[in-house]
């Protein structure tokens, strides 16, 4: 396995690649969810490239940029054991060698869910993803469904600007008790870790509520009530939007029921996709 720390090293490696190239962009501190992305890429491509870069432009003031967990040696060992061909591991100065006045505007899709409380976050995500796509030039890029809003925005970016690659959605990987795998789970106390699985339980119960009542409003209200019972956490948001276009409607073919919850030192997100109950409803939106 090759480790590239500069863009030029990555370009040189990329020129040597033959066949299809799969790409998994991460911020490191890899867990089973990342492993699933990598395994899927390895199965589907001739070459797999992993990037590890904690991108400062997607962190706002008072967010956890400095605290974000990092352990490159651990990540290196996991990637090698899976059969990854190359790790791109640049520094911040290497990724952002010059200051640019060109900025990204993620649009209305970034003003809901996580974007509502993290202004500018998805501008930074699209900025770094664009740079990485140009550097890696992948055939396929792999993203987890846990970050549903991020995935929807990246799919929109690729479609709108004709990036010559395919985005592959990979289902959320969970612990046995249902908690979605996340690098930030290490911040949970024992008491918080005991309550955290109830996030997913509330989503699953919310899906059943929607299947019974076919009401987005009632479903959201139910999940809010369930999460409100968590004594160790507070709700950031609960919402149910069309997917992947992230619009408020009672007439979508597919919904994402999404939540974000604050614990003392961690903000966890999760979601579940729900198909519309009434297949004969009119005025469908995406």
UniProtKB/TrEMBL annotation:
(R)-pantoate binds at residues 58, 150. Keywords: ATP-binding, Cytoplasm, Ligase, Nucleotide-binding, Pantothenate biosynthesis. It holds the Pfam family Pantoate_ligase. Its EC number is 6.3.2.1. The active site is at residue 34. Beta-alanine binds at residue 58. Belongs to the pantothenate synthetase family. PANTHER family: CYTIDYLATE KINASE/PANTOATE-BETA-ALANINE LIGASE, PANTOATE--BETA-ALANINE LIGASE. This is Pantothenate synthetase. It comes from Chryseomicrobium excrementi. The gene is panC.
């Amino acid at each position: 396995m090759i480790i590239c720390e500069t863009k030029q090293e990555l370009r040189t490696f990329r020129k040597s690649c033959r066949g299809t190239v799969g790409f998994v962009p991460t911020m490191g501190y890899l867990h089973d969810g990342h492993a699933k992305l990598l395994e899927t890429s390895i199965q589907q491509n001739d070459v797999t490239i992993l990037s590890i870069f904690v991108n400062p432009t997607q962190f706002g003031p008072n967010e956890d940029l400095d605290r974000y967990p990092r352990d490159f040696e651990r990540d290196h060992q996991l990637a090698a054991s899976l059969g990854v061909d190359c790790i791109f591991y640049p520094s911040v100065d290497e990724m952002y060698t010059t200051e640019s006045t060109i900025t990204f505007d993620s649009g209305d899709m970034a003003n809901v869910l996580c974007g509502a409380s993290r202004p500018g976050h998805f501008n930074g995500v699209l900025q770094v993803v664009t740079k990485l796509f140009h550097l890696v030039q992948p055939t396929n890029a792999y993203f987890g469904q846990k970050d549903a809003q991020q995935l929807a925005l990246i799919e929109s970016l690729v479609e709108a600007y004709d990036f010559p690659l395919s985005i592959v959605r990979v289902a959320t990987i969970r612990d046995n008790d249902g908690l979605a795998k996340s690098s930030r789970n290490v911040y949970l106390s024992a008491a918080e870790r005991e309550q955290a699985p109830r996030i997913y339980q509330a989503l699953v119960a919310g899906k059943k509520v929607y299947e019974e009542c076919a009401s987005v409003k009632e479903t959201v209200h139910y999940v809010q009530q369930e999460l409100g019972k968590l004594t160790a956490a507070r709700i950031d948001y609960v919402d149910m939007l069309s997917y992947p276009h992230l619009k408020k409607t009672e007439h979508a073919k597919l919904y994402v029921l999404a939540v974000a919850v604050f614990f003392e030192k961690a903000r966890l997100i999760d979601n579940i996709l729900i198909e519309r109950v009434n297949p004969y409803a009119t005025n469908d939106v995406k």
